[in-house]
Amino acid sequence: MKWNERPELSQKDMEQWFQSITGPEAALQHHGVIPKMKPRFIACDFERGTAEMAYEVLSWELNPQDMIHGGITSTALDTSLGMLTHYYTKPHVLTTVTMSVTFLKPILLGDTFHIHSRLESLGRTLSTVTGEVRLERDNILAATCTATYKIMHQKQKNPLV
């Protein structure tokens, strides 16, 4: 069954789910590094298997060259691509197997970047997702990513999903 053919999932459900996990009261916003990055849900497309999240560059995220640290960009990508995969595999737990990031342009303090993620394949145990990091200013492509997630066939134990 293709990911967009599951009868219990829909565009409306997907929008509500993303808003519930990124909203101010969501468990996701109260634990670890993710709340410090302040991810913001922008849009999703259930049929196409896509989602868009936005992040503002904060001063604590900068490297010594006053650009966002590559690890922060990678964390934002892993978070955004992982959230998209989580939606289609809920209530199962995921873990990142591989993630390849290509950094193309610097991301600076004051920038807001959008991560456009797309589900490429969803099997019984593995999922592949691609992502693009685009700067709001001039729609500059700053980074690309491909990630593979392992779908653990156990139910989520914490309230993140």
Estimated share of beta-strand residues = 35-45%
The coarse overall form would be globular
* Low-confidence region ranges: none
Provide the residue-averaged pLDDT. Answer: 89
**Structural class label:** alpha+beta
SSE string: HHEEHEEEE
CATH topology: Thiol Ester Dehydrase, Chain A
From the N-terminal CA to the C-terminal CA, the straight-line distance is: 22 Å
User: Could you give me the name of the CATH homologous superfamily?
Assistant: Hotdog Thioesterase
Radius of gyration: 15 Å
- CATH architecture group name: Roll
How many DSSP H or I helices?
Answer: 3
The largest sheet has its strands arranged as 1-2-4-5-6-3
> Roughly what percent helix?
10-25%
Major β-sheet, in short?
6 strands, antiparallel
The number of domains: 1
Q: Determine the oligomeric state from the structure.
A: single chain
Number of strands: 6
Structure write-up:
With 161 residues, the protein is α+β, with helices and mostly antiparallel strands. The chain has one domain: Thiol Ester Dehydrase, Chain A. 22% of the residues lie in helices and 38% in strands. The chain has three helices and six strands, in the order ααββαββββ. Strands 1-2-4-5-6-3 form a six-stranded antiparallel sheet. A hairpin with a 5-residue loop joins β5 and β6 (141-155). The radius of gyration is 15 Å and the shape is globular.
